[in-house]
Amino acid sequence: MGRIRQIATALASASCAALLTACMTAATSSGSPHPSEPVPAPSPTPGAAATAGAVPRPDHVVIVVLENEEQGEVMDEAPFLASLAAAGTSLTDMHAETHPSQPNYLALFSGDTQGVSDDDCPRSFPGPSLGGELLAAGLTFAAYSEDLPEAGFTGCRHEGYARKHAPWANFTDVPEQLHQPLTAMPTDFARLPTVSFVIPNLCHDMHDCPVAQGDAWMREHLGDYATWARTHNSLLLVTFDESESHGDPNNHIATIAVGQGVTQGPDPEHADHYSLLRTLQELYALPPLGHSADAAPLTFLRRRAG
What we know:
- Pfam families: Phosphoesterase.
- This is Alkaline phosphatase family protein.
- Keywords: Hydrolase, Signal, Virulence.
- This protein is of the alpha/beta class.
- About 30% of the residues lie in helices and about 15% in strands.
- The N terminus is likely disordered.
């Protein structure tokens, strides 16, 4: 009986070992990771925040700069812009830095007026600028100007185009060819650069023509993008260079944001071109430039992180 018990025990042990081997082989062949191998992390979704709690970056931002109008007049006389404000947010305490136009464009694009206090042309600066920062970070940038005769045009004027409203033309860290005629702007909005500027001509930016005419131009050229942005993780920003009155110490201007995740309703926080630039830099993890380092990022996209 002792000999039979020994044989039975040996057979049982062999069966258990064989069964364990078979189970491990089956698990490996089924595609499950080996217990010693790490499980791959899921790929991030487009537009996801790089860190927990960070504001997710839009896939595309289009910034339109208009000219020389008071905040109240824009809301009263521009029904399309008012509809954008109703769909998104209107910065009700937004201010330009100075007069005339050119220093404000420089402030928005580089964080500093670069010592400029006039509209003289041409100007040249080595950078850094927002466009140069985006390119250095592996992102994309372009500007689209109405009446620009050709890509990379360096002249001061052509028909309704004025270089004083195109600060990227002054910075050597932005390749000239990234300044394109408005007709080059993609109609397939998914092909837009990460950040782009749209500059209407001197009539359609409301500088030389009535607010209503500029508003109609905005509807025609940016209406489809505004609708698309609300469902495609993108953003439209419309701002002004300065107020109409040079005697206005507040330099109060209209600024509107619309897009997916933009907090809806008036935004009363104090803002200027430096804080708008700082907001863009925060979205794309870019270092703040010049006076934007002293400005707080705006909060109209905070709800996106929820």
